[in-house]
Amino acid sequence: PASADLFYVPTWDLHGSWGNPELYLRAQRYVATVFPFWNRSKGADHIWTNTRDAGGCSNPWGTIWEQTRHSILLTNWGGVTGLGGVPVERCFDATRDLVIPGVLKSKIVAKSPFLPYHRLISDRFGAARSATADMSNAIWSRRKTLIFFHGAICWQTYDKVRSLAELKRKCARTHGFLDHYSFGIRWEVYRRFHAEPGFHLRATDLIPPPPHVSLDTEMLRSIFCLCPSGTGWGMRVFHSVALGCVPVIIQRDEKNAYPPVLQAFEGLLLDWSTFTVRLEAADVPNLPSILRKIAANETALQEKRRALATEWTRLLWREALPDDIAKYLRGTPDAFDSLMQSLWLRTKHGLRGDGAGWRSEPSE
């Protein structure tokens, strides 16, 4: 340990998305008391995992500010604010923290249109390689839906309503620290385009609910998938990437927040603009024309699809997959490889990705 660059604190927040921070308090006290490494850097070379919806941001049940204020957080949420829409306490610091992907279910990965090409290459050459532009157009030709979304439109998700007017009133309610659910994007897109041709938007907080469908099948039939935040991070974007549906991401904490909500490994390893459509809230009124323009431009669309095929394995945790799938992906970088590469770039070269020059707290 004396020669280690970094130390991982193996905690797991059993309280879930917004729970009591006691676990972090106890772990920090233990590490600082029993081991000699914490106090020499105030924990700056220590790494924590935080799986809360809004990462390290404070919430009504507590904060992890004191325990992790100098440390590195591995988090699924790359926003500089919490759910209240204002910068508060620890949250996310792009100069040191890293966004990592969640774990996709293997049954989703098994349906990926990219997997057969990894299998073919592995069978031929004995090692998996990234799927490339050699993929047949057959996997894209069945995509007739312009954009797909399935989920709740407003908080609280279990509060069901019977009409668009009731949904509007629901979306106008305030909930304190949850006032910025989805930054208002789900409602804006739904109210404007729920009847738009080519838009398949399924609001689960309406009564009656949308008819049952396979979400995997719908994504495999769609060119684009809307991937808005909810109460923080979600699995929708990773689901879309694995199934070859180009994610549409509209996430910004506040008007002048820098950087915007970062995605997994963004800036250091991945350029998310190459395989997604990144938009601002001001672009929402023009969403149909923006997407149709990209869809009609075969070169632009194929470039995004090639980038999806190249980078999708970086958003998978290979060790979480069954052997019959994982064996075809060996040799390609997965999320663990990407995490270690990102830490190495930070430690050895001081790279900060899109967070260069930004801090969540004043320098000491």
Task: Provide an overview of this structure.
This protein has 364 residues and is α/β, with parallel strands linked by helices. The protein has 14 helices and nine strands. It has helices at residues 22-34, 38-41, 65-68, 106-109, 115-125, 138-141, 164-172, 185-193, 215-220, 236-242, 287-296, 298-311, 323-329, 335-349, and strands spanning 7-8, 46-50, 72-75, 98-99, 145-151, 199-203, 222-226, 246-249, 277-278. Strands 6-5-7-8-9 form a five-stranded parallel sheet, with helices on both faces. A four-stranded parallel sheet has the order 1-2-3-4, covered by helices on one side. Helix 5 crosses helix 13. The longest helix is centred in the last third of the chain and has 15 residues, at 335-349. The model is unreliable at 127-131 and 355-364 (pLDDT under 50).
- Count of alpha/pi helices: 14
Question: Which oligomeric form is depicted?
Answer: single chain
Radius of gyration, taken over Cα atoms and rounded to an integer in Å:
21 Å
- Gross morphology is globular
Distance between the termini: 27 Å
Fraction of residues in H or I helices: 25-40%
